[in-house]
Structure formats: structure tokens, C-alpha cells
Write a structure and sequence with these properties.
The complex is a heterodimer of chains A (about 200) and B (about 100). By secondary structure, chain A is mainly alpha-helical. Chain A has one domain: Four Helix Bundle (Hemerythrin (Met), subunit A). Chain A is built from 7 helices and no strands. In chain A, helix 2 packs antiparallel against helix 6, helix 2 packs parallel to helix 7 and helix 6 runs antiparallel to helix 7. Chain A starts with a helix and ends with a helix. With about 100 residues, chain B is mainly α. Chain B has 2 domains: about 55 residues; about 25 residues, no CATH class. In chain B, helix 1 runs antiparallel to helix 2. Chain B is flat, with a radius of gyration of 18 Å. Classes of the chains: A mainly alpha (about 200), B mainly alpha (about 100).
């Protein structure tokens, strides 16, 4: 049997949920697990906060203006991500790379602003085990939740870089953009989680 | 890596419209969140408004940016289950305190 005939004979089965890609299903399952991780962090936060006697009002401690800009930035980066996918679906390789780099830029600026926010708060007296405004768990939960999310953004920027690199080498086309869609799913998830973190940790 | 490709249906989404909705909801959220809770603005109302707006934004991102609106329904359940379990665990743990 020739190599081609052998490859056809063992054509992989389609997944029932995402016929076009096993990788896409794999990413969705990973994101569901990751959502459980964030869900449990936020659920733990909810329980600790609601049973604490001296939990400070977040708006009194945390910089809402700065965080609002960070939220806006991540939303914009989700738009550039989806525009990048749109571009490669039309066969526009340059557009794909441009929008992926813009998405990465959004992520990098977000991380820079978060580093600035953390530095400012640590100088003011908020730490992993200390909080001059009240319950120490406020500091613990704040740094753990935003730090865990920040790690995801960092990983996402690196992941986007790898896909942008592959895009610049002409690997993707109007008939082959599955990997771009998958990185998009991860990035939108990161944005979605931040929407929830911003609401529950900063605003509520 | 073009094996097993099923022809993809083209769904045209107005991504900029979704962006404006997200921006608008974020601005409303900030006003709702920064405003002090008090007799005229009960904590429960503040919480309800913020949660509704956050879930609305999350739904827009999931349905349109992540394309769940055009995927098979079971995939949506995979996405929804962590949210349901997170709420469930809070409700199950709180009575212990």
C-alpha cells in the first residue's frame, strides 16, 4: 500500500462536537477545567468575604480607574484576536500577523499595568498575609486571584507569539486556520475570566 | 494539518457591535460598582445589577467571540457546567459558617 493510501485508510474519526478539529474540542475541555480552577478560587473568595467581619470595601483600597482601563484593554485585545481569525479566513496572512501582534500588545500592556498596580498596593501595605485596611485574607485572595489570572495572560502572550511566528512563516491560509481559532478560544477565555474577576473582586 | 475537514459554515458576526455592547456594559458596571450602597441603593440591588451585567458580558464573549452561538449545543453545556458548579459549591459551603 502506498503512503497516501495508508493515510486515507486510517483517516481519524471526527469528534461529535467539533467535527472540524480534535484540537478545538481539546481546548474546550481544557478551558472547562481551567474554568473550574477559577470558579473554585472565586467561590472560596465569596465564602471568605461573606463570613469575614472586617473585609474592606474594594473600591476604597483598589484602583478602579486603572483596572477599568485594564478591562477595556482586554476587551480590545479580544476584538483584535477575532479580527485576526477573520483575516486568515479570508486568506489575509499579513492581517492575521498584524492582529495577533496587536492582541499580544494588549496583553503585555495589561501585565505592565497589573505590575504597577501590585507594586503600588504592596508599598501601601497590602500583602499576601497582611492588610492595613482590615482582614488579611483580602490581600491573600486579591493577589492569588489576580496573580493566577496574570499567569494565564502571560502564558497567552507566549502562546500568541508562537502562533504569530507560525503565521509569519505562511503556515496558515484560508483553508488552514484551525490553530488560530484554538488560540483565540484561549485568549477569549482569559478575557472572560477577567470580566468576572473585575466584577467580583473590584466592584462588588 | 488539513485532515478531516468538514466544510465550515460562514457566520457573519458584527464584532464591533459586540465591542460597543461590552464597552457600554463595562461603563454601567463601573458606575454601579463605585456607587456606595445605602438606603437608596441596597447591597442586594448592587450585587444583582453587577452580577447580571457581568454574566451578560461573559455571555457576549462566549457566544460571539468564542463562537458558541454557532456550535453544537452540547459544547455549550461543557462551557456552562463550571459556572453552575461554582455557584453550587458556594451555596453548599456557606451554611457551614
Amino acid at each position: 500500500m502506498t503512503q497516501q493510501a495508508a493515510a486515507h485508510a486510517i483517516e481519524p474519526a471526527e469528534t461529535p462536537l467539533t467535527p472540524e478539529s480534535w484540537g478545538k474540542l481539546g481546548m474546550w475541555v481544557f478551558l472547562a477545567g481551567d474554568a473550574m480552577s477559577f470558579g473554585m478560587l472565586l467561590a472560596g473568595y465569596a465564602v471568605m468575604r461573606s463570613t469575614s467581619k472586617n473585609w474592606p470595601v474594594p473600591a476604597d483600597v483598589l484602583g478602579i480607574t486603572l483596572t477599568a482601563i485594564m478591562t477595556f484593554l482586554l476587551i480590545c485585545s479580544s476584538v483584535t484576536m477575532v479580527k485576526g481569525l477573520d483575516a486568515i479566513k479570508r486568506g489575509d496572512r499579513n492581517g492575521l500577523v498584524k492582529f495577533l501582534l496587536l492582541t499580544m500588545l494588549g496583553g503585555i500592556i495589561f501585565l505592565g499595568m497589573q505590575a504597577y498596580e501590585w507594586t503600588h498596593l504592596i508599598h501601601e501595605g497590602l500583602g499576601l498575609t497582611q492588610n492595613k485596611w482590615g482582614a488579611s485574607l483580602f490581600g491573600t485572595t486579591f493577589f492569588l486571584i489576580t496573580g493566577f489570572h496574570g499567569m494565564h495572560v502571560t502564558g497567552g502572550v507566549i502562546y500568541l507569539g508562537a502562533i504569530a511566528w507560525r503565521g509569519s512563516r505562511g503556515i496558515y491560509s484560508a483553508n488552514n486556520w484551525n490553530e488560530v481559532e484554538i488560540v483565540g478560544l484561549y485568549w477569549h477565555f482569559v478575557d472572560l475570566v477577567w470580566i468576572l474577576v473585575f466584577t467580583f473582586v473590584y466592584l462588588l | 494539518m488539513a485532515h478531516g475537514h468538514t466544510p465550515h459554515e460562514i457566520h457573519h458576526v458584527n464584532y464591533m457591535a459586540i465591542f460597543w455592547w461590552l464597552l457600554g456594559l463595562t461603563i454601567l458596571e463601573i458606575f454601579a460598582g463605585v456607587a456606595r450602597a445605602g438606603p437608596a441603593y441596597p447591597h442586594v440591588l448592587k450585587g444583582f445589577l453587577l452580577v447580571i451585567m457581568a454574566l451578560g458580558k461573559a455571555a457576549l464573549v462566549a457566544l460571539y467571540f468564542m463562537h458558541l452561538r454557532f456550535e453544537r449545543r452540547t459544547l455549550g453545556f461543557i462551557a456552562l457546567i463550571p459556572l453552575m458548579l461554582s455557584v453550587f459549591i458556594v451555596l453548599m459551603v456557606l451554611p457551614d459558617f
